[in-house]
């Protein structure tokens, strides 16, 4: 197993993110990891929610050899940060799916679990630590903000996390994620199939239009309901036109 020097854990000292204080995760090693395949290094960060009853339960599962799941990091609702797998290694967090036509997301990504069931907003202390952690990871691996994705982005229809209550717009304002539209874009013309536009926007993990619509709304229009509408098409078309931004 890979080794690392244990460090004392730290909790967010206040609701205000510090850009100078160094993060010091609690080292809690998981046996569920392996080498990154084909010489790959992280070019993505995948955000998850735990959907469990507390960080302790999630930590136990992510470190249980029988569960065969893990992540690089877990952030508790109170801002406590645990690290379970070295970033250089391949954690088992993403599962089946793809992003921009690239599979084996585990070998291409750093996985971050957030203690939340997806039913309520994410805590301020938790978000502050996430922002700090993302700044470090993006800098360390030269990952563009567009490389920070949801689990649901790479596995539409199979996964919903981090869900509609996650504040993607907040990350985008800090340059830590792909910009999110603050209001519905104006409808535009065009008759391209929705699935084709979604694929051009990076959503290659499914060909089912309804799963793709759900994934895109979770990320960019969590308030939207009902069948696909003109604002959905305008949004995904704008994202597709932005497809040349590098993430892998």
TrEMBL record:
<feature type="domain" description="N-acetylmuramoyl-L-alanine amidase">
    <location>
        <begin position="30"/>
        <end position="163"/>
    </location>
</feature>
<dbReference type="InterPro" id="IPR002502">
    <property type="entry name" value="Amidase_domain"/>
</dbReference>
<dbReference type="InterPro" id="IPR036505">
    <property type="entry name" value="Amidase/PGRP_sf"/>
</dbReference>
<dbReference type="InterPro" id="IPR051206">
    <property type="entry name" value="NAMLAA_amidase_2"/>
</dbReference>
<dbReference type="Pfam" id="PF01510">
    <property type="entry name" value="Amidase_2"/>
</dbReference>
<keyword id="KW-0378">Hydrolase</keyword>
<protein>
    <recommendedName>
        <fullName>N-acetylmuramoyl-L-alanine amidase</fullName>
        <ecNumber>3.5.1.28</ecNumber>
    </recommendedName>
</protein>
<keyword id="KW-0961">Cell wall biogenesis/degradation</keyword>
<feature type="region of interest" description="Disordered">
    <location>
        <begin position="1"/>
        <end position="30"/>
    </location>
</feature>
């Amino acid at each position: 197993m890979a080794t690392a020097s244990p460090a004392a854990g730290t909790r967010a000292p206040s609701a205000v993110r510090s850009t100078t204080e160094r993060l010091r995760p609690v080292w809690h090693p998981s046996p569920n990891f392996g080498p990154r395949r084909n010489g790959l290094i992280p070019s993505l960060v995948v955000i998850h929610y735990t959907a469990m009853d507390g960080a302790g339960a999630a930590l136990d599962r992510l470190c249980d050899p029988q569960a065969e799941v893990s992540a690089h990091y877990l952030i508790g609702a109170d801002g406590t940060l645990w690290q379970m797998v070295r970033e250089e290694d391949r954690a088992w967090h993403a599962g089946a799916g793809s992003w921009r036509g690239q599979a084996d997301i585990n070998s291409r990504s750093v996985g971050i679990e957030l203690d939340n069931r997806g039913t309520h907003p994410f805590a301020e202390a938790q978000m502050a630590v996430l922002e700090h952690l993302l700044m470090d990871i993006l800098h360390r691996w030269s990952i563009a903000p567009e490389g920070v994705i949801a689990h649901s982005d790479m596995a539409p229809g199979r996964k919903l996390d981090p869900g509609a209550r996650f504040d993607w717009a907040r990350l985008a304002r800090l340059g830590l994620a792909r910009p999110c539209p603050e209001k519905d874009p104006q409808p535009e013309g065009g008759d391209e199939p929705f699935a084709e536009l979604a694929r051009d926007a990076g959503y290659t993990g499914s060909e089912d239009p309804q799963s793709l619509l759900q994934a895109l709304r979770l990320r960019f229009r969590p308030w939207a309901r009902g069948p696909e509408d003109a604002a959905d098409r305008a949004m995904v078309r704008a994202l597709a036109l932005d497809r040349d931004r590098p993430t892998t």
